[in-house]
Amino acid sequence: MRLGMLTAVALAMLVSPAEARDHLIRDQQEYARATKALAAGDRIVLANGEWRDFAIRFSGEGTEAKPITLTAETPGKVVLTGQSSLRMAGRYLVVSNLVFRDGAAPGEELIAFRDGSKRWAENSRLTGIVVDGFSKPDKANADHWVALYGRNNRVDHSQFFGKTNSGAMLVVVRAANVPLDNHHRIDHNYFGPRPALGENGGETIRIGTSQESQSDSFTLVEDNYFERCDGEVEIVSIKSGANILRRNTVVESQGAFVLRHGHGNRIEDNVFFGNGVKHTGGIRVINRRQTVRNNYLEGLAGADSYSAIALMNGVPNSPLNRYVQVDDALIERNSVIDSAHVTLGNGADQELSLPPVSTRFVANLFVNRDAGDPFEARSDIKGIAFTGNALSAKGPAALPVAMDRRAVTLARAANGLLYPTDPALAQVGAPRTLQPIRREDTGVSWYAKPIPSPLPGTLQ
């Protein structure tokens, strides 16, 4: 009986898959040998130290239960320098705890969820990554720090700051030969200071391009912290449909979340603090069926495309790379506090001649305690309906629309945001349940972030 049991165990061992392996790798040659035939559950562990000019290619077929992992021996102690880069392709891959510093990507993508034009990553994750000033010396020499291809990938709990050259920090690449229904998730990242580029191409995040903008990406950008992201007027540039931007905190960033191309997107539950810094903006709306709701915008000093809320004019028969008329937009329960401008029909001229239509402003709160009415109409506003909005500002009304004009007293709540003390306004403006993502809840704990910008009230 005992012999039979041993035989059964031996047979089971023979037919079972090989055990997952951990490989501690000390140089690039060892890495090349260890990654030739990775199996589900394998872990590649890079030894602590500086890895210079390391072009990492990481591919394999993991499973949901047993991903293939590339990580550091100690978080933050593996530093990739010089002309280093990362390419990942396959399924269920995880890359974590690496630092890119003191160098620049040799090509157009520092970290790419693909290896070649026909192999990309799916169901894969980049987490706990730091990219600190890994910029090309010539600012006109463009690259992207993270390029997302494929579908169902995640970038989370990472830190990106100090980019000085052209190109988005993070881009979702959508083209005819790769999946368009991306379903990516970008969450709990710290996007830190980036100086103004002085031209287009300095986005922090861009999802798609105009060429493929009429299809849906389904990408989720949530619970991220954007601080002094001044690269260009578009902090986050949406160029596709059915994306969601929610629960992000934006501090002293000279730009806006922009619904540039594509339809049916949502921007909700975000918090913007401008602290009166010039060109700090909020949300710009273009195209059809866009929803902007439950956002809190305070101290934004920007005008025109940098306004706290801007609705663009459109171009008749607009080509893909221009401006589709705003149609069926819902602007609901947003709080715009001590912000300089809310611009309707922004950009209106002989070409941008189509004002917003079938658009609703519902239950929003506008309070300017030391300044006048923030509204400015650059074009016909007959296509915009106003219902249940409250406005508190000095001076005469800027628009001939129905608005509950009253004195509003504000008090800062435990979540760090200002709310009316009058119970009659409880259902106007951003909800009290809004919880801004905190700086310390994004990025990594083992690598210092830049010196923080101050936040108003008790939100630190």
Task: Please provide a written account of the structure.
The chain has 460 residues and is mainly beta. It is built from two helices and 43 strands. The strands form four sheets. The chain has a 14-stranded parallel sheet with strand order 1-2-5-8-12-15-18-21-24-27-30-33-36-39, covered by helices on one side. It has a 14-stranded parallel sheet with strand order 3-6-9-13-16-19-22-25-28-31-34-37-40-41, with no helix packed on it. Strands 4, 7, 10, 11, 14, 17, 20, 23, 26, 29, 32, 35 and 38 form a 13-stranded parallel sheet that branches. A hairpin with a 5-residue loop joins strand 42 (410-412) and strand 43. The longest helix has 14 residues, at 2-15. It is elongated. The termini are far apart.
What key phrases describe this protein's structure?
single chain; 460 residues; mainly beta; 14-stranded parallel sheet; 2 helices; disordered N terminus
Q: Using DSSP, what is the number of strands? A: 43
Amount of helix:
under 10%
Lateral arrangement of strands in the main beta sheet: 1-2-5-8-12-15-18-21-24-27-30-33-36-39
Radius of gyration, taken over Cα atoms and rounded to an integer in Å: 25 Å
Which oligomeric state applies?
A: single chain
**Class computed from helices, strands and strand pairing:** mainly beta
- State the shape: elongated
Counting DSSP H or I runs of 4 or more residues, the number of helices is: 2
- Which regions have little confidence, pLDDT < 50, spanning 5+ residues? 1-17
Q: What is the rounded distance between the termini?
A: 68 Å
Largest sheet: 14 strands, parallel
